[in-house]
Amino acid sequence: MSTEEQLTQIKGIDRIKAYYDNNRRTVSYAAIALIVIAAGIYYYSNSYLPKRENKAQSELFAAERYFRTDSVDKALYGDGQFMGMIDIADQFPNTKAGNLANYYTGRLLMNKGEYEEAIGYLKKAKLADNFLAASSIILRGDCHSELGDYEKAASVYMKAADKRKNDVTTPRALIKAAMAFEASGNFKAGLKALKRLKNDHFDSEPAQDVDRYIALMQARLASQG
Asked: Most buried by CB count within 10 Å: which residue of 13, 109, 185, 207?
């Protein structure tokens, strides 16, 4: 290192020391604040959140039992001893059990015909499982279809097909999208969805009659223009 470089380095150290001497209190407060924030993050991640997850899981266990036995009201609202899906979803956000409760709540409310409310819960369900996540998006599309908003339904179905690709839910999303596009009068988009179903998922169950659907959609498109 040259003498000039050494002098530059010394001057830099002197400037840092001078800044600390002049701002000792501010620097100390900043350091304390960082320590407090780091401790808070550690406590949240390693103590608070796991405890909430365990509590949510124990509540969800009972609610899932009612869900499996088609006890809709007890699954949604609880039995007086354990919470229902709605309370678990609302009181335990950012937990795996809370996200599952959002999904279950959406499904149950949809079955009860409460489509707007169902959409709200399904949108909040952040699910790691690829199939379950895709199913949640498809259910949102079903709710929009039931509300008569076929254009929105088609858009949501295509989101399920594009963002959560697999050989089970993607073909189902594509056929539902095609039917929703048809109901909205967008035959060109419907035909595109059907052709994608045929090309990418020809062996799937939803694609069994895809050639017939394509012919019908082409006829609809031809009559439109």
From this structure: 109
